[in-house]
Each structure stands twice: as C-alpha cells, then as structure tokens.
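Appendix B, example 12.
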Amino acid sequence: MSYVRVQIDFTLLADDDEFVLDQLTEELADDFREVGEVERIPRPASGPDSKGVAELVLGAVIVLAGVDPGYVQALVDVVVAFLQRNTGRRVHLRVGDIELTIDRANPGETAELIRTVQTAIEGARR
C-alpha cells in the first residue's frame, strides 16, 4: 500500500503557552500513533549559531496516510475526537495542495469529511 504525508495542525488559543501546546501536540501525536506512523515536525534552524538541537513545532504533526477507507475513517475519527476534547479549536489538514479545516463535525459532516480526505489522499498519490 502506498502512503501520503498529511500535515495536521490545530489552532492556537489566546491563553496557550508553550507547555500547553507541547502537551496538546503530544496528545494528538499519541492519538495518531494508535492508527499508524506519525512524527512531530522539527522547527527549522533559526540561524548560524543553532546548536543543532531540533526543537519541535508546536501544534503540528505529520501522519503517513493510506487510501484504504478504514484508515481514512480512523484518521478522521482521531481528529473529531481531538476536537471534542479540546473545545474552541480547529484542525487543519494539508494533503499535497489541498487544505481542509475541521471544526466540530457532526455525523453527516464527518461522512463528507471522510470522502473529502480520501479524495485528497488519492489525488496526492498521483
């Protein structure tokens, strides 16, 4: 099965600090690890004096997604569950050139979201 890289990040709230963002990012990464391979995004080096320590971008992860409908369903389920636990946030998915924003999806929207994500993943494979 071939895979596509999907970047997933969530909106920041005004009172978020670095600790909260790190915890939420790790929570999201852990949720996706139950589905498949996930990695946190390293922050690019900021200058010539950088020590090479890869700080992590807070609020974003990369997931290797397959086009199998069961996998896409699990991916969307993780996003919807994360949003239910973290009210007031939105999640952004980037698959190739396609970007989606998810905000409190109801069951009908979730079904449409699954179709949209699967189409985006299939398109990115080409």
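The longest strand covers residues 56-66. The chain has three helices and five strands.
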